[in-house]
Structure formats: C-alpha cells, structure tokens
Write a structure and sequence with these properties.
28% of the residues lie in helices and 14% in strands. The chain is an alpha/beta fold. The strands form two sheets. Strands 1, 2, 3, 4, 5, 6, 7 and 8 form an eight-stranded mixed beta sheet that branches. The protein has a four-stranded antiparallel beta sheet with strand order 9-10-11-12, with helices on one face.
C-alpha cells in the first residue's frame, strides 16, 4: 500500500471551510436512508409525496448525479466512514473482516476520529438506527467510532456530528405493515415502472410499497428537523440526506446500474443559502465524507480520496467510480466508471449470472419468482430479459442521457469504439492509481456457503432455457 499512499494529486484537494473554527463551527447531521434511489417528489418521481425532503431541497442544494462507490451497504459504508474507496482499503467484500482482526491500513482513519480530535461529539442513531456495518476493525488505542448514541450527551456548547440511519426503507417484514397503516398509501396504478420491469400487478404493488417506505422516511426526517428547531440548533446545523446505496428492487441494490449506485443527496446549510439549487456535477459518496471534515474546519488528510464539492471554485469530477465484489455467497467482480454522459461497466466474471440464486434476495424480494415465471414463459422484452440471461456481457456501455434506464448496451458498436476505449482506459488508470485490492482473489476459505460450492437449480434452468 505504500506506493498508493504516496499518490496525492487531486485527491488531496482542500478548499477553505465554509465556516470558521471556534464556537461558530456548525453541528452536522448526516441522515442515511437505507436502500433508496432518487425516488423523491423533488427528483421528479410520480405518485409519491415527500414534503419534508422537498422543502429541504428548496432550502438547500439538491445533487442530481450523486453516486455510491459500491451498490452494497457494508462496502459503501466502509468507504464513507473513511473517505476512501473500499477497494483501496481492503473492505470491498461484503461483510468481511468481522472476525479476522483486519485493521484499516495506516494512515487511514475514520472521519469521526478527526472530528473528535477537533472537539466534536460524535453520535450515532439519535433515536433511530445505529447501524455502522463496516468491513474493518480499529487498532488498539484508536478513538471509538462514536462517543454516544445521542447528541444530547455532549458537553454544553460542544459541536456535534450525528450519523442517523433510517432503516424503514431497508427491505423487511415491516414493509407490508407500513403500507397498511399509511393514511395515504401510494396508488400502485399511478406508479411509473422502469422499462426493464414487466407491467404486472405484483410488481406494481411491490414498487408502490417501496415508495410507501420512502414516505415514512420523509416523515422521520421531519421529526429530526423539528427536534433541531425545538432545541434551538437549526440555525447552526448542516443537514445532509443521502441513500446508503441504491434501491432494494430488481436491478438495484447489488448492481452497478444507476438503480444500484445513484442515490439522492440533499444538503441544507445554516442560513438557507444557497437555496433551491439543483446541481448536475458528479459527486461520489466519499466526497460527502471529505466535505463533512471541511464543514467542521478539519483539514482533509492528504491520503483521502474524497474531495470537497460544495464550493463553486472546486473543479468538479469528470468521472465517478464504483465496484461490485462478493455479496454474501455470490462471488463476483465488476467495475464501473460513469462520466457526464456515459457509463462503462466491466464484468470480470461474466460467467456469474446477474439473476443468480442468492439466499438473501430470495427472502427479501418477493417479485423474483414472478419475474422468473414471466421469463420462462417468454413474455419479456429484450430489455427485461437482459438481467435474466445465464451470463453477463464482459463489457457494457450505456448512454445515460438518451437511455437513463440502461436498456441498450452499446458495447461493441463501431460508433462507440472511441468512447469505449477512453472509459476502459480511465477505469484501468483508476484501478492502478488506487491500488484496487479486488485484483487479489479472496481466499476460498474466507467464504461461507460459497457460490462455487453449489450450482443452484435456478442457474441450471436458466442455462437450459437459453439453449431452447
């Protein structure tokens, strides 16, 4: 790793903080709703009501091109907690290193360590979820990730950083109950389904239920904002709202499509300025980590890969990068680079189907059997059947401006040869410069219930279906 940590370049970019050091340093509340895409009314989603977040966007800044570095919770959270790509710090395999003593590579530290050293009280949960879900351990003697579970436990006058998880949007048995108790549930007949999903009553119901959870999360954000106002903290508190990874629906969480890595990002600064801005710049979630430090008046470490992005003087990113590796028992490896117009995905294990059997998904995504039956009946369009095939393309290229749902793979078309070459080169450069640890295969003994230990009945049927 030594060679990598000597690489600084633009990753060390530091801009002057928006707030001065001292007693005027702002509090920072970072709200992470689990498993959601940009499915808010302020992002143009029909049939949903999100008045709190709409108002927050009207009084703040809405980023329309914010991306996770991974489409899976633990890997992306590991990146956000450090401001580093999970592939650079060895945290890229989902829920790995929990019991093997793996430590963050020096000099990498959690952002909360820097905040605590700057005098901040770091809280997690504050009456909501306290999930951290990190793929690394801290060395002995390191500061704890958080000082407590509520900002009320800080010293008088002490600035605080609060990380709050909204788990209502995470797939769970509560989804049906949330929809039932809603005073105005989302009308499944009014939802707009992506073109990669067949129009089926069960699929419409599932999508409407997902939107019901977002409406519930919107109400929880309202509770948090009201508490800040009630305690006289609103005028000196930065509020950040994001998704921890993409939506937990078909082609979403777990995949490098827009549905899996593109998330909402709304930031409200004290004083209400700037207000109502919508920005199209590319933002990586590790940039939010760096920006938190800058807002607190903390100098960003030179090794950190995240960049500040709020200041207009900062040159925006030309590309954002994301990686998919092992997810529970499914061993896979894909990398993606997204530019202003295109996305390029390289699947290093095309033999692993997109729609492979996975225990977690079989439990939490009720439309999977419905999709499977529609696929077997031959009633899917080409765009709908793409993810059901027995193998993945080795390369994928999508024109995000003209094909935002990524239904037409342009890889291999002569017209896009130069675009492909350019983005492929940029991805390879990123892997080299960031020392992508995914290039080193994970030991098989580290994997329980591994993909290679059994060939599922579903995969066999898919392959047989493809031959017919």
């Amino acid at each position: 790793m030594q060679q990598f940590f000597q690489f600084i370049g633009v990753c060390a970019l530091f801009a002057a903080p928006l707030f001065a050091k001292g007693q005027d340093r702002p509090n920072i509340v970072w709200i992470m709703a689990e498993d959601i895409g940009c499915d808010l009314a302020c992002y143009g989603t029909p049939a949903i009501q999100t008045p709190v977040l709409d108002q927050m966007a009207a009084k703040g800044i809405q980023f329309n091109r914010a991306y996770c570095t991974s489409p899976i919770c633990s890997t992306n959270r590991s990146a956000m907690m450090t401001g580093m790509y999970q592939t650079s710090i060895g945290a890229h395999q989902h829920r790995s290193h929990r019991e093997d003593g793996f430590l963050l590579p020096a000099p990498v530290r959690p952002i909360t360590a820097y905040l605590q050293e700057a005098g901040y009280f770091c809280a997690v949960g504050c009456g909501y979820g306290e999930k951290t879900d990190l793929n690394f351990n801290l060395p002995k003697g390191e500061l704890p990730l958080f000082n407590g579970n509520d900002w009320s436990k800080r010293k008088e006058g002490q600035p605080f950083f609060a990380q709050i998880q909204l788990s209502v949007t995470h797939r769970g048995i509560w989804w049906e109950q949330i929809s039932k108790i809603s005073s105005d549930p989302v009308d499944q007949n009014k939802v707009s389904l992506p073109p990669y999903l067949p129009d089926h009553p069960a699929i419409r119901k599932d999508w409407a239920s997902y939107l019901d959870q977002i409406e519930a999360a919107d109400a929880q954000v309202g509770e948090i904002l009201k508490r800040l106002e009630r305690e006289g903290l609103a005028n000196n508190t930065v509020v950040i709202f994001i998704g921890d990874n993409g939506r937990c629906v078909h082609r979403g969480k777990g995949f490098l499509f827009e549905d899996g890595i593109k998330v909402p990002c709304i930031i409200r600064l004290p004083g209400g300025q700037p207000a109502g801005e919508q920005r199209e710049q590319l933002v990586s979630m590790i940039d939010v980590s760096a920006q938190v430090l800058a807002l607190a008046g903390v100098r960003i470490p030179e090794y950190m890969q995240g960049r500040v992005f709020l200041e207009e003087s900062v040159e925006p990113r030309k590309y954002v990068f994301a990686a998919r590796d092992r997810w529970d028992e499914v061993c896979d490896k894909s990398r993606a680079v997204t530019s202003k117009k295109f996305k390029y995905i390289r699947n290093d294990m095309p033999e692993v189907p997109y729609f492979t059997y996975q225990g977690y998904l079989e439990k939490v995504r009720p439309i999977r059997p419905v999709l499977w039956e529609i696929f077997k009946s031959g009633k899917m369009t080409e765009a709908q059947a793409h993810i059901m095939r027995p193998t993945k393309p080795a390369e994928e290229l999508y024109d995000l401006q003209n094909d935002p749902w990524e239904t037409v793979n342009l890889a291999g078309r002569p017209r896009y040869k130069e675009v492909m070459l350019h983005l492929r080169t940029e991805l390879e450069r990123w892997e080299e410069e960031t020392e992508d640890q995914g290039r080193n295969p994970e030991p098989k003994e580290a994997i329980s219930g591994g993909f290679y230990e059994k060939i599922s009945e579903r995969e066999a049927i898919i392959k047989n279906s493809d031959r017919q």
